[in-house]
Amino acid sequence: MNSKAPMKYIVVSGGTAAQDSRTKSIERGVGPAASRASVHAYMPPLRTRSRNLHALIASSFSRKTFSKRNTGVVSGLGKGVTASSIGVLLRAGGWRVTSIKIDPYINIDAGTMSPFEHGEVFVLDDGGEADLDLGNYERFVDSTLTRDHNITTGKIYQSVIAKERKGEYLGKTVQVIPHVTDEIQEWIERVAQISVDGQPDPPDVCIIELGGTVGDIESMPFIEALRQFQFRVGTENFCLIHVSLVPVVGAVGEQKTKPTQHSIQALRSAGLSPHMLACRSKHPLEQSVMDKLALFCHVNPKCIINLCDVSNIWHVPLVMLEQDALRNIMSQLQLPYADPDMQQWEYRAKKWDAVTTPVTIALVGKYTGLGDSYLSVTKALMHSAIASDRKLNIVWVEAGMLEDATQAEDPAAHADAWAKVRSADGVLVPGGFGERGTEGKILTAKYARENKVPFLGICLGMQAAVIEFARNVLGIKHAHSTEMVPNCPDPAVVFMPEGSTTHMGGTMRLGSRRTIFQTLDCKAAKLYNSQPFIDERHRHRYEVNPDLVDQLEAAGCAFVGKDETNKRMEILELAEHPFFVATQYHPEYKSRPGRPSPPFMGLVLAASGQIDQ
User: Residue 238's beta-bridge partner residues?
Assistant: First the structure.
């Protein structure tokens, strides 16, 4: 890794103009219907060197004309996992990797988007609210990204307009070309130099995932910028990977290459010619299909890899390695190839398939119709389950179905929801916003507390536990949150004084904050190896009412973790309960495959009867 060598770039792009988010969550293997679908995964890496930048670009473009298939539109093909998997291979081969996600929407960031619109919002250490794919990058490559690693049209135009107002364009007419496209390229080069692994030097390879499609208006400036970028950094420092679906049509089960041919044609007409094809399919592609793709898509046959359905996403880097994807990427980027050390990764992938002893966790949330809404939560559960030698079974429960109002409106749905909760070995209540489903979360906390069922509450889940305790233990019958009841006479949860009441974007308490343990003689501290303090990521506007803390603690609701001011409650624990822990922060964001989040690990251990071992 010569410090004078140029940086390498890998770009992964794809998706369709119309997206079916339910299909997307099923394909990622995380939604309520995931048990009926195989897990798909992909992710391409970018490799960066000290001074100069080389790019490996993977793209996947689809068109509305062929986007419909029997399970929905062609979305969620797995660009993020493909890019992440490339990052795994590069890192295992000794290269330092960073990642960038380009989202062509006009939003500044994902912070104000509904989970039903775009899946979960992934929070970074610096408080950036980003696309969920940055979570994939961090988990697979074990990196710590920044808000600037998520590029949006909103950020680019905001920067260009700010420069224009300052007069930095020297009286020029500001245009998409060259000013917007130059801003995109400069942003990529600047961010690619940021170390994301704790080392002082810049990375070797930068992996760029390009969202959107060739035909989308909002994607056009980015596609043009990348067309220019390949010459700016040198073609030997740039690798374009195109992720495309090869569907099966008709009763005969013929694998069709025409959608991929047309998407490649559109891509090449925009000035980008892929070096590799990553073809998604349910079953392995026939050799004749691979040969046809090579012939009509102008790609070397050795550079076509088949990413068919696998049992878990940890197999994807292994599948790519078996098909010489890494060797071909190294060849395009003119980098020396070395066999990557994938021993631990392979062990984890095979262990997930081999473990048979089940543990069932009821996930009681507001957005259970779209599993991507809780992607980091489900991944954190996976990490903990495999570390505990358990087969994870997630039971999805819509919080609103547990409420008394539902019992009157739909008794069957109400009974079914509660049957799911009662069948679980442990209960998890994740974060959320708004009134809908909150009473169901409060009732879930009550059930877990009274029946000694292992419980983990996160953010709103912790607030629900506090409200429940105030109502049913302290006897404050009208206790609630001012988020749901602004004029609540007995608020257990209140709006934080530093929050904004007029602007929503980027105004919450965000990013990494310190939590100091008040005692090391508690379950939470022991799970964190008895560290005196921890740094975890936050995303909230409301907090436990400081005026109620003394009453809560006197009754047995112990706040074993607080912030540095000692006024903001961070970790709740019930001492007389086998495992009842709740956190104001979001521990799921820092969970890694080989380093599970401690609170999640505690929940799975308690649910599987191993907490005292």
Answer: 9, 55
170 Cβ partners below 8 Å, 6+ apart?
none
- pLDDT one-digit tens code per residue, 303-321: 999 998 899 999 999 999 9
Residue 3 token pair? 């410090």
Q: Determine if residue 359 is left, alpha or beta; phi over 0 gives left, psi from -120 to 50 gives alpha, anything else beta.
A: beta
Taking only the tens place, the pLDDT of each residue in 36-54 is: 333 333 333 333 333 334 4
Secondary structure element (H or E) that encloses residue 302, with its range: none
**Pair of tokens at residue 593:** 């495959």
Residue 258 near residue 250, CB atoms below 8 Å: no
- 3-state DSSP of 105-123: CCCCCCCCCCHHHHCCCEE
Q: Which residues pair with 150 in a beta bridge?
A: 101
Whether 184 and 103 have beta carbons less than 8 Å apart is answered as no
Q: Residue 505 and residue 102: Cα distance in Å, rounded?
A: 19
pTM metric for this prediction: 0.88
Give the span between the Cα atoms of 405 and 121, in whole angstroms: 30
3-class secondary structure, 142: coil
- Least Cα distance to 418 among 402, 403, 405, 442 occurs for 402
150 phi/psi in degrees, rounded to 5: -115, 105
Catalytic annotation present for 588: yes
261 contacts 297 by C-beta, under 8 angstroms: yes
**SS3 at position 354:** helix
Distance of CA 571 to CAs 108, 525, 559, 599, Å?
31, 10, 6, 10
Query: Would you call 164 a catalytic residue per the annotation?
Result: no
> What gap in Å lies between CA 348 and CA 291, rounded to an integer?
33
> Per residue in 184-219, pLDDT tens?
999 999 999 999 999 999 999 999 999 876 667 888
Do 175 and 15 form a contact (C-beta atoms < 8 A)? no
User: Can you tell me the distance from the alpha carbon of 481 to that of 544, in angstroms, rounded to the nearest whole number?
Assistant: 9
Catalytic annotation, pick one of 206, 297, 459, 522? 459
Q: What is the DSSP string of 202-257?
A: --SEEEEEEES-TT-GGGHHHHHHHHHHHHHH-GGGEEEEEEEE--EETTTTEEP-
β-partners of residue 122 are 130
